[in-house]
Write a structure and sequence with these properties.
76% helix; 268 residues; mainly alpha; globular
Length: 268
């Protein structure tokens, strides 16, 4: 029993770090949670199959985001920063993309999924360093455009175990939505993005040859609970620190750390 519960007690530590960084830099916690869980599942004997560690890491990360997205969405809504018509038009594509992304991840072996995540992390880190945002140049699209954008956002988010804001914000800014509203709208989209992806990882993981105790498909619930509780507590602290610390310099340092993590996962 000690051998089981001792490592599980470390899940809140992952949650505390991911919540703090998410509040400090305005990034999704999945960029921290996924590689941390991948290492965690390799280091401890929790019954997670070696060939499915990344699947459990991504699925569990998406489940965490489902729970942590509520407070962020509500906070932006109270400030009137959510463009709800855009949310409603993005959701159908997000849901279908999230389910497709989970099915695509299930078809990948653990190594390929690691490399895919590594490449994505490096790309996000470079984006953080450069800080480029597209100039508003086009009006919001019709239903077809929203469906296509939502599908891409949902698919990539499910493959990477993130909330999708890193794709949603640039898309909305490009489509002439003010940055603050784009961020709030992306926060409101996080819930359906994560919920669709997590549901997909539950369904695709039901056919595991050896089901994992305390898991539903590819979602490991001790990790979800421990990380969620801690991240909810530390995210507000990170947001407060963002107003007193040199965030630009820290953001670049964190981006360099992400590049190292991403390259390490690419190398295998």
């Amino acid at each position: 029993m000690v051998e089981l519960w001792s490592p599980i007690l470390l899940f809140p530590l992952i949650g505390a770090v991911s919540g703090l960084l998410a509040g400090l830099f305005g990034i999704g916690g999945g960029l921290v949670i996924v590689p941390a869980l991948n290492l965690f599942f390799a280091a401890f004997a929790l019954g997670i199959p070696a060939q499915a560690r990344m699947h459990f890491a991504i699925g569990s990360s998406l489940a965490v985001i489902v729970f942590t997205a509520v407070s962020s969405m509500w906070a932006h809504h109270r400030r009137g920063a959510v463009l709800w018509p855009a949310v409603r038009r993005l959701v159908p594509g997000i849901v279908s993309g999230g389910l497709f992304g989970a099915a695509l991840a299930d078809a990948m072996n653990n190594r390929l999924l690691e490399a895919t995540f590594g490449a994505f992390v490096v790309a996000i880190a470079l984006y953080m360093v450069i800080g480029h945002r597209p100039r508003a140049s086009r009006p919001l699209p019709g239903w077809t455009g929203f469906l296509g954008a939502g599908t891409v956002i949902g698919t990539v988010s499910a493959l990477a175990g993130i909330g999708g804001g890193v794709l949603t914000v640039p898309f909305l800014v490009w489509r002439t939505v003010p940055l603050r509203t784009a961020v709030g709208t992306a926060a409101a989209c996080t819930m359906p993005v994560a919920l669709a992806g997590a549901t997909g990882f539950v369904l695709t993981g039901l056919d595991l040859a050896q089901p994992v105790t305390w898991a539903s498909g590819y979602i490991y619930w001790p990790a979800v609970v421990g990380i969620s509780l801690a991240s909810v507590l530390t995210a507000p602290l990170g947001a407060r620190l963002a107003h007193s610390l040199p965030v630009t310099q820290l953001r670049r340092a964190f981006a360099l750390l992400l590049i190292v993590v991403g390259l390490r996962m690419l190398a295998g």
